[in-house]
Design brief:
Blueprint lengths: L2 H98 L3 H18 L5 E4 L7 H8 L3 E3 L7 E6 L4 E6 H11 L10
Parallel strand pairs: 1-2
Antiparallel strand pairs: 1-3, 3-4
Length: 195
């Protein structure tokens, strides 16, 4: 072998070895890059899943808050509407009571309440009060029942009130008392198309 052949041979061996080392370095580098890529994509997916879960929870919380707020507003509006309708209804009831107080049935009701109060008193002294609007009926009722009646200074719409001082008893058959009780306990029990 000549020197030139030796040089060419050394060059070929060196080149083959260099290529082999270069390929090995490239493979090692490629494996490292692939491993880094897998780690990076796995971490990115975990972060994305965590972020999606956090955003989902936040969106649900916002939806729940908005829903709760809307329900409170709806209940408040419903409550206001029910109070308005309740007041309107009781104004109508008062008007009907005023009409009823002009009838003979109302006079009969007064006689019944007065008689029952006298029976309850069992001959003990009692004071029976008529509403100021019933002043015109006082004489007729006193004659029919045989008891002295007193016109109240307080307007209790209609009906009677009686006191038995010896027993500290108040008998209240006043329309005002009944209306107040009914108003306090009145509730709308649902239904549709309430105007």
């Amino acid at each position: 072998m000549t020197i030139e052949e030796k040089v060419v041979h050394i060059q070929e061996v060196a080149m083959t070895e260099a290529r082999s080392e270069g390929n090995q370095i490239l493979e090692t580098h490629q494996k490292a890059l692939d491993s880094l890529y897998v780690k990076h994509t796995t971490e990115a997916r975990k972060q994305m899943t965590t972020k999606i879960n956090a955003e989902t929870v936040r969106a649900r919380q916002q939806l729940n808050q908005t829903t709760a707020k809307a329900q409170v507003e709806l209940k408040r509006a419903l409550g206001k509407r029910q109070i308005f309708l309740k007041d309107k209804l009781f104004v109508e009831v008062r008007t009907l009571l005023q009409d009823y107080m002009q009838t003979d049935a109302y006079c009969a009701l007064l006689r019944t309440h007065i008689t029952n109060a006298a029976k309850f008193a069992n001959k003990e002294p009692l004071t029976i009060y008529l509403n100021p609007s019933d002043v015109a009926r006082k004489a007729e009722l006193e004659a029919a029942i045989g008891l002295k009646l007193t016109i109240s200074r307080e307007d209790f719409i209609g009906g009677i009130r009686a006191t038995i001082p010896s027993r500290n008893i108040l008998i209240d058959h006043s329309f005002l008392g009944m209306l107040d009780t009914q108003y306090d306990h009145f509730q709308f029990l649902g239904g549709a198309n309430i105007d």
